[in-house]
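User: Hey, my collaborator sent me this sequence without any context and asked if I could get a structure. I don't really work with proteins. Can you help?
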Amino acid sequence: MSWLMRRKAYILCGAFGMLIVYGATRNGWAAIGAILIAILPAFFTRDPVPAPLAQDDVTAEIANDPLFEVKAAFAGFDSPVFLLDRGGYVLYQNPSAAHAFGEFRDGQHVSARIRLPAVLDTIREALDTGKTGTIEYSAMLPSESVYLVRIIKAQGEADYYVLIFRDISETRRIDRMRSDFVANASHELRTPLASLRGFIETLLGPARNDQKAQEKFLGIMQEQVTRMSRLVDDLMSLSRLELKARLAPQDAVDLVPLIGSVCDALAPLASDVGVEIVKTLPAQPVMVTGDRDELTQVFENLIENACKYGQDGKKVDVTITAEPDQPVEISVRDYGPGIPDEHVPRLTERFYRVNVESSRSKKGTGLGLAIVKHILTRHRARLIIRSEVGQGSTFTVRF
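Assistant: No problem. I've predicted the 3D structure and written it out in structure-token form, which is a compact way to encode the shape of the chain:
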């Protein structure tokens, strides 16, 4: 319809010409020819291209909306930003704010979606006094997020306020991990240090001349020193891995001889705890990109854990699966007591233990799976854990 409206002059001329020709000649074919000749140019005429918005029009738009430039500036911000009037009603929200808090209707009050009393009190105080307000805001849904909320009065004669939510979730998470790490590391070192101090005081005092007590205490002291040494070694390994976390290895590694050598090296440990390591390895090479020493550390840790914590099952299966056009997988399965579901997501956290006493009795530091996770992250690989209580556990490395 719009096409016809834009070409109505041609159509009217054609109709008028048809009437004249038909009236003069009484020949219908001649009349049809006349209208076709008249409207034929309409099919070859292009629609005019709209002229670009003139500078005067842009100036007029800015004049009609005093917040035009401010909105344009905040539109590209990653952080949620609101412009509020003195009553706390939303004049504008940038796309990040709409994504984080949902769309506000024009003139809707900020409390319609942001309902934390502490934040609203900060906004209300800033609106009343004109002073800058700052507060931390934690949202648990849809996921845990922490924002640093600031409300600032616009400079100059403008009568509006800028409300900014800066996402500090990652900063807070790192701070929490750091404090937990320091607390856990201190706790792990405090126990053996206290034991050593007590035994040394005993050897210097009551047991100074007691040969039997000296042999017993020195043996325990050696165990505690060894435990601290393992803990320090694991902490150093974690630190080194964190320093090169973004540097992916470039060497080609054949997993078949690597897994074979790890299983052979751990055979005496498996025999001591009454476990048989059963290998299922392909005949052909299975190549991946990685660091041989770090991958050896990964599989030593997984197979050793399977032998220690799954020794009730008497067997550990180690299998390499390498199908064409499929990821390479190495699975380590034990037939022990299994791990309750609530513990599985946290197994790779530093110092996390399902059973503290069992872990310590088996000389675990609580850092082994954290090291495995860091190494596999550097190798762009995944650790998949499946476990069922009473049926054992399977740890699968997927490249």
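In plain terms: The mean pLDDT is 80. You can pass these tokens on to your collaborator as they are.
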